[in-house]
Specification:
The protein has 565 residues and is an alpha+beta fold. Helix content is 42%, strand content 10%. Helix 11 (388-403) crosses helix 14 (470-483).
Amino acid sequence: MFNAVRKWARPSVEYGREAEPGPCLLRYAALPRAQPPSTIMAVDRSFERRIAGLVNGRSAAALRGGLKGVEKESLRVTPVGRIAQTPHPRALGSALANEHITTDYSEALLELVTPPFAETWELTQYLCDLHQFVYRHLGDELLWATSMPCAIEGEESIPIARYGSSNVGTMKTVYRRGLGLRYGRVMQAISGVHFNYSFPEHLWPVLADLLESRETAQPFRSGTYFALLRSYRRHGWIVLYLFGNSPALCPSFLQGRRVDWLEKLEPGTLYAPHATSLRMSDLGYRNKNQAGLSVSVNTLEHYVRDLTQAITTPHPDYQRLGVKVDGEYRQLNANVLQIENEYYSYIRPKRVAASGERPTKALLRGGVQYVEMRSLDVSPFDPVGVNQAKLRFLEAFAAYCVLRASPPIESAEQAELDGNHAWVAREGRRPGLVLRRDGRDVRLRDWALEILDGMRAVCELLDAGDESRPYTNALELQVAKVHDVALTPSARTLQELRTTGQSFFDYALRMSAVHKSYFLELHSPNASRQDEFAREAEESLAAQSRTEASDTSSFDDYLARYFAA
């Protein structure tokens, strides 16, 4: 998605400018406790020196202008909240070939992808325009307003995405068929928001001077991005606390399973009283199937090594499922991972791949181009599922992570980090919650305030020359959530359920209808952009037809070539 930057005239009103309007199965308890919770602030002298270097070196604006993009998933549902069984609307183009409107796991799981923008307002405006275009072609269907899916009537009620008869389209469908067999289709129906970010070009020479690096350009960039990945693993739990918004779910999501730590909230809701993001808990993406999979982010080479091992090592359970049975592919292969994208992680290093190029090969060829932050839940409080304050915070957080010292992560520390994320997802709002840092207990509240205090200097640099101080204001909103847990999105959602007396299903259906009305009633849509979306849809259908007509080999041969490359 980071192959171009598109700029548009600034609208008279900034959509989403107001911040947050209106309403591996790891048990933390199993981690050893060394001593009482620490209240000592961790001092990172290298971070202080790097911030001072940016300020004193007259590079105050060096952090500004990074490229930002969003991938937002939403289930298409019927007016009564059931997963749509209709095909991907033809008016939206080809899910295979349309860069900006596609599908994820399910034929009903719509994914809207923005190009990268230097300004957050441009990004949110584009996302708003995309929603307007989509809603004009959905008929009576809705886009589900929350991450956790609607009433599910069995696995078969979640249709696997279809991409046509070409080899590449068949591969995408078979991959999803394999995901369903391995993890269940229900988990794949969860929606999220991914934030893509790359640092501005003018920052790299400044960073190289600050770090006194002698590496050549691309190895230095990749190494810096991997330092960000390590720091995000250490501190990214704060994203779940601040923005997690899936503390409750519809009982149908469990498909008859009993989960002892979930409680009932009448009518018809299951919830975890202190959860922030059940989506990112062991009920969602942090599932036991990948609990034993360890992928290092200490270096690019280690990352590629571990992923390559996972996509080439057979898994006994998946071997028993079979790969090609009675002439039909059930999965792409029987390895630990079918392809690299099957690895679920909070953040990924990315590079735009060439046609038919595997993600790891693309990284080895050109290095890291941007990172994909994957922890955001879809927000029912925002019509497009996200807002500018949240995106500005994540941009500042990326800079904070890259400026901090970030030594290699060894296996013992990784267990702590995984435990912190799992615990915050499930218990993040529990009063006095304690996490683990460097073998010591530390209160979540103290650690969170330490992180946010460190981010103040970053936000000031990002605000340089802007009297409205948007990044600092976005930060202050998050500080308030640490001081008052009732301000967190997860707490607000539970309060909404209690106040209205609605079930999670009825609440999510109501918000979905509210969002649809919002977009259909918006005045003066950007006509040129709506026309552009229509042209892209038509062109994508033609591109899919050309791809299908150009295939000259069998799917077996295509698959063999892909994995041999």
